[in-house]
Amino acid sequence: MRQILMMLVAVILFTAPAALRAETAAELLTENRALIEKSSRQSIGPVIGALAASGDPAAQAVLEAWADKRLGLRKSDGAFFLLTETPEGFALTDPAGTPAGSAAKAEITALKPNSGVRGLIATALVQFQLSDPDPAKRAAALASIARDPLPDHLEPLAASLARETDPAITARKARLASLLTLRFHPDSATRVAAIDSFGADLGLDLRGALNPLLATTRIAATAAPEGANIAAELEPGSDIALEAAYDLLVAAGRAPARLTLADQRAALLAHAQGGSVGGVAVADLADQAARDRAYTALEQAGLVPTAATEDEVTAAIAAHRFFDVYAEPDPAVTTAAQAALARISLKVGAMQAADLSLDALSLASIYFLAAIGLAITFGVMRVINMAHGDFIMLGAYTGYVTQQIIPDYTTSILVALPMAFAVTFAAGVAMERLVIRHLYRRPLETLLATFGISIALQQLAKNIFGTQARPLTSPAWLDGAWVLNDVVSISYIRIAIFVLALMFLGLFLFIMKRTRLGLEVRAVTQNPGMAASMGINPDRINMLTFGLGSGIAGVAGVAIGLFAKVTSELGSDYIVQSFMTVVVGGVGNIWGTLAGATLIGFFQKGIEWLNPSNTLAAQTYMILFIILFIQFRPRGIIALKGRAAGD
Amino acid sequence: MTPGSLSRNPSVLIFLATLALFTLAVTFLSEAAGAGLISTSFVKTLGKTLCLCLIALAMDLIWGFAGILSLGHFAFFALGGYMIGMWLMYARTEVIVVEALAGAGLPPTPQEIRDGIASQIFGVVGGSDLPAIWAFAGSLPAQLALVVLVPGTLALVFGWLAFRSRVTGVYLSILTQAMTLALALYLFQNDSGLRGNNGLSGLQNIPGAEAVGQDWLSVWFFWASAAALGLGYALAAWVVSGKFGSVIRAIRDDEARVRFLGYPVEVYKLTVFTLTAVITAIAGALYYPQAGIINPAEMAPIASIYLAVWVAIGGRGRLYGAVIGAVFVSLLSSWFTGGRAPDLNLGFYTVKWVDWWQIVLGLSFVLVTLYAPRGIGGLFDLIAGLRAPDRRGAALGPGDGALREQEAKE
Hints:
The structure holds two protein chains of two kinds.
Chain A: H1 2-13, H2 25-31, H3 33-37, H4 41-53, H5 59-67, E1 71-74, E2 80-85, E3 89-93, E4 99-104, E5 108-110, H6 115-130, H7 135-147, H8 154-163, H9 167-184, H10 188-197, H11 204-213, E6 216-221, E7 230-234, H12 242-251, H13 261-270, E8 276-277, E9 280-281, H14 288-300, H15 310-319, E10 321-326, H16 331-380, H17 388-405, H18 409-434, H19 443-465, E11 481-483, E12 489-491, H20 492-514, H21 516-526, H22 528-533, H23 538-563, H24 570-585, H25 590-610, H26 615-632
Helix pairs in contact in A: 4-6, 5-6, 7-9, 8-9, 9-10, 9-11, 10-16, 11-16, 13-14, 16-20, 16-23, 16-24, 16-25, 17-18, 17-19, 17-23, 17-24, 18-23, 20-21, 20-23, 21-23, 24-25, 25-26
Chain B: H1 3-8, H2 10-29, H3 40-65, H4 73-102, H5 110-122, H6 140-164, H7 169-188, E1 200-201, H8 214-241, H9 243-253, H10 255-260, H11 265-291, E2 293-294, H12 301-314, H13 319-337, E3 344-345, E4 350-351, H14 353-371, H15 378-384, H16 405-409
Antiparallel strand pairs in B: 1-2, 3-4
Helix pairs in contact in B: 2-8, 3-8, 3-11, 3-12, 3-13, 4-5, 4-6, 4-11, 6-11, 8-9, 8-11, 9-11, 12-13
């Protein structure tokens, strides 16, 4: 801000000396040769301004050449030329644009403007670039202004707006002009109008322009400062902590510093003589009261600076008033900016809530995807499969291996999904046949045996793939995010997972309610003996059901691997959450699993929003919440009733 | 202990005698007491193993006798370790800080000592204030009381919540696992007040015993662990032999029936749960000074599963089984994962046990669950000529208690 002001002053001071009345760029250069040769940021402003304002079509080329260090003087006659480097030396072009032969390097002094001067030239060039025939150059000029707006830009920008033909660039120019107006325009009413014209716009550029207007400094004074734009008066003790208030006084030199314990210690050490300080024996100083006595004695002897006591601190604070003062002197502008920011933050809040809901929804679909296989093996068959997480991991590694074989990402994902299903289906069937079948009546031991398998599978994956994370790269069309505005956005990959979760929900419902297999599964689950007498082979059905649940876990693994790192611990990160999802939702009901995943997803995102820095805490509170939730609904959100409940 | 309970548990005397012999042997072979055949670090390993036996004993009590598969006992174990670790770390840092300040000219004030300790301990997590939970860390008796009180209270509250809402079986297992995970995740945070994932370290140095070498300290802790195990075994044997033991076994076998007989099932379960949590915490308080370091990874859910593995392999429902399982599996594990086991060359592939031990353990666990549900302890039944009915095959009637095909054949 201060630099901008200084430049403004410089521009105004040098605006119109008598020498600057020439018409063409060439004449201007010649007349101001001395200034140009020894150009410095302080003195060159008027020359550049005159060049830019000359109306000579060659002026832009001259300025550009100057900024590029391609402007030079012929030593023999002091004439200016635009230089083009050639093997022999320079090809010369005079400032009017006509070729003027060539010259050896020794005959020419090339001008080397410093960075300050180049900055001024760049500012002057803006008006040319803003009316450049090439729309890409105009857009680039706008972007450069937006990056580093200066008060000088406002006028050329407004001027070029009228001549603009491209509607997209017109809109950008108009927006940028309003942003510059609200910051730099000299007239207060115009600025307020510019602020109000935005309404509750969500653009980050608008907030970036408004926030500096509301920057405050905190001052301590005995009376309200004259003419200052005061944001608020602070009440010590409530608006500002007493310590902070006193520190402000100390920083302003209005009160002596308080004595810290470290300073006191240093002072006592410095004045210790012959085993005592201020009449107190050093050996007795293991006590704060004794140290205070010793220091007071030193104070009275004038050996150490007087430290402020509590009473003095209180008195000093009481004698002063504390204010937040806006750097922006115009109260109308700050009021308007505050109102605008309040409007914006309300809208931003609403948008953030929407964004958070989208995040929560995508987290819920991840949990749902991880848990849906479990909803079959645990929910329908009541088999605790602690290796479920490792089936997810197995699916993710299958995806990784597929990508190693098929380099095209789109094809490999399409191949990996059925491959993962096949691999984990086979693993699930094998596990059911070899282990779980023998343990149907001993659920606790199923838990332990499957955990043994889980340990073995994890170590096996570690032995084969190593401990470092393996990438599972998503195809390019899943990169990026769907951006609604500056606040709300969701990555395509999360949308894909959401869609996948919905597809699996549909698949589950279809298999369970509409197919022969689903009918038999339900029959075997309800009463295996009766199902067997009706000609259903319970062993086969159990095997297929378990395979199906495991296969879905594998597919979920591919989906999860796309956004998480594939490691051997991938599964164990999800296993507890998956069980929680099923238990909270209500065992044996797919809608319950859906409700559980939604509840957990939203709850976790909610906690993360309250305490954004700490996802660990969010998980902790999540689990505590689930433990408490089970107190009130031990059978989950959607509990089976009657005989279907099983007990 | 009544004579009746002793006669019903002849294993107690055998066990205590074996333990005493073992302790004496280790003492006389240790570096501290003469022979020097057992290195100090191995004495520590043996001491730690005895602590693990104690927690396995507690696990057997809750799982093998009461039928509650708790996957949260390592949380109590680690909490016990944290409680004693807080005192060890505080007291030792205090010694260091006082020495450092005394060398700086002025005798330190209590405030300076406190600040010095706080910045020493919490410097690594960027803090300089002692959190409120360290309020009693300066006092050994208080922290010793907390070793019992904190895990005991946690077990009481958690158990009360879980049992009163009739959470049983695998649900309870998953819930206890969730509790452990929640606690571990909480302690992993730097602002949890227990140094985040740095944990507490330097616990092998006992304040006030600097003059005693690590060789003697290791023997002392070995004795303490052996004494704790002996007492724990006697206590557990007494608990399971009386009427109380009958009731908890009955709860294991048919909870509803016991409830209908008029027993307050929840009270019994809560008592066992809390008692085992306290035993576990004491084991933890003895274990971590020998291990020297504790961090939240110690209470990862996997640790509690390993505990279940020990008990299952050793043999559930018999106290010596748990102890045998803990000794056998934990010593074998440390032998295989310590890189001391020779590689197995299969010609086409060399099996490195460091990599493959977990797989062998996992699979053998499956095999034990499937084919030897009574574990190593079952071998004693073979010696004694006892045989359990073969419960495999399809049930011949409704309900879990019905005869099975294989049973009926005999």
